[in-house]
Q: What sequence folds into this?
């Protein structure tokens, strides 16, 4: 095949102007920087299943941290992983572990996973659990045996909807270790604000823990459950004095909830700096209105 020939036409430059130099060759566009592969925490009980899933996802270009769950130590283990890493997606499964742990894994990921998406894989379909999971932002349920290409596609979809760019909402909740109040309210906060805030919640059973975390990361809101089940610890005399210290040191909003209907307690709490005080029975909508006002959320 012959190359087409084109004649070059030279023009004399205008007086006083230098002739234009040779035309610069067009430079090739720089290749676009490859997107960072999604980072996944894979929690599976069975070694063989975990290895197969991990190998399949790695082959799909996904970075995987496989973790074998030990039911005796899983809360502390997961918290340690979340503190050291920022995962785009967490995959809790009941493959090799009892299903009863899966809701706990989801709850822990919501509270401490720094906005990670969640893909639950299970061979046991519970309609009520799947329905509740669907209400949580950036979650999905896949029935086992799972199709690896479908799993990889779902991971990329959820990773692409990361909440890390959203405004932060970091909540510290002081409550009794075995009390359900903080768990209920924190789960509700994640479900209610997860689409507009990068929510991170800490459920803490002592004032010492609250001060430790508040000293290491920015806090947007403190929740305190005024109950004998929760002790602030030394050197504070009681929860009222502890709140006074929080307001003086951090100046952040404090919401107090309690089961005690005592007008005097309310007066003491508000005098100590509590921004909103709710005595049982209270509605979550009331707390939402207070949060929106204190945090300037439209």
A:
């Amino acid at each position: 095949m012959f190359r087409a020939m084109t004649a070059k036409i030279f023009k004399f430059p205008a007086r006083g102007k230098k002739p234009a130099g040779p035309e610069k060759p067009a430079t090739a566009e720089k290749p676009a920087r490859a997107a960072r592969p999604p980072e996944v925490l894979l929690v599976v009980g069975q070694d063989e299943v975990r290895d197969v899933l991990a190998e399949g996802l790695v082959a799909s270009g996904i970075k995987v941290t496989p973790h074998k769950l030990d039911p005796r130590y899983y809360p502390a283990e997961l918290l340690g992983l979340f503190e050291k890493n920022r995962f785009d997606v967490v995959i809790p499964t009941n493959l090799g572990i009892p299903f009863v742990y899966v809701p706990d894994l989801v709850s822990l990921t919501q509270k401490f996973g720094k906005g990670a998406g969640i893909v639950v894989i299970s061979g046991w379909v519970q309609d009520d659990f799947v329905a509740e999971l669907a209400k949580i932002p950036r979650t999905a349920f896949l029935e086992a045996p799972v199709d690896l290409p479908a799993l990889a596609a779902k991971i990329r979809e959820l990773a692409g909807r990361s909440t890390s760019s959203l405004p932060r909402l970091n909540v510290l909740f002081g409550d009794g270790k075995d009390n359900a109040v903080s768990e209920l309210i924190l789960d509700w906060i994640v479900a209610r604000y997860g689409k507009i805030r990068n929510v991170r919640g800490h459920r803490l059973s002592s004032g010492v823990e609250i001060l430790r975390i508040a000293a290491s990361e920015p806090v947007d809101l403190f929740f305190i459950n005024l109950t004998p089940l929760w002790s602030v610890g030394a050197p504070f005399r009681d929860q009222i004095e502890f709140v006074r210290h929080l307001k003086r040191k951090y100046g952040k909003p404090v919401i107090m909830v309690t089961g005690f209907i005592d007008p005097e307690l309310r007066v003491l709490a508000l005098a100590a700096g509590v921004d909103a005080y709710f005595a049982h029975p209270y509605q979550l909508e009331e707390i939402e209105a207070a949060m929106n006002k204190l945090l300037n959320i439209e």
